[in-house]
Known about the structure:
The protein is built from 9 helices and no strands. It is mostly helical. The protein has one domain (2-258).
Amino acid sequence: MIELLLSLPMWVGCIVAMISAVVVGLVVYFVSSKLITKYQRDELKDPTQSLFRVVGLLVSLMLSLAFSEVIAEVRVIRNAIEREAVAISDTFANLELFDIERTQAIRTTLVEYTQAVIDDDWPALANDKLGQRTEALRKQLNEALMNLEPATSIQEKLWSFIMADMDALSDHRFIRLDAALAKPPVYIYVIIFGFLVTMACFGVYRPQGPLVVLVSLYTVFVGLVLFLIMKLSDPFQGDISVPPTAFEYLVETLLSEIR
């Protein structure tokens, strides 16, 4: 169900999530209100209000923590992307300092690799995997760099810097894959359960027009926040996915230098 919801366009999924929250919330509210009619509402109001405060506070706290967590994860991913782009840029610059003629083909392959990250890796990440062409170019780069023999002590230092950047490049690439494979937080189901308990607590109040409207607005808000949490937990899919902006800018810069 969650995967189907996340596969929808942003606004469609958002509307579906909010409508679903309203429908489910109001159904629980009306059912709870119907069941409570068998008892004295006034006697149940005080203990129910206390329960409502506790559960409502817990749900609000968990929603806040879950939202903060996915925002922090997106920042980590963006940071990894920027570091990956820096590693490519540094490798390109060090190859020019190493030997501009001997490394011409390698630098060209590096530019092709960067373009493949945009054209091949990013669409693959939306399907929770890495691009095959990008992986083939990465292996080609590693092989070419391993065969690049330093002739001076300066070139030895440059070669060590280049290989360190290539290791960092691979590490950051797998950070992107880990983020793509990540699932929505497990405790999202606890939040949904707490939301249903909260709606049941409203049953001590007889359904009236203004109250139903206010309850509906509350459910819309909860549905919106839950959808955003689930959407941000899959940062390479959908309209609010993390874009390869750093790599697009880097390709333009490297192409202007290599020409």
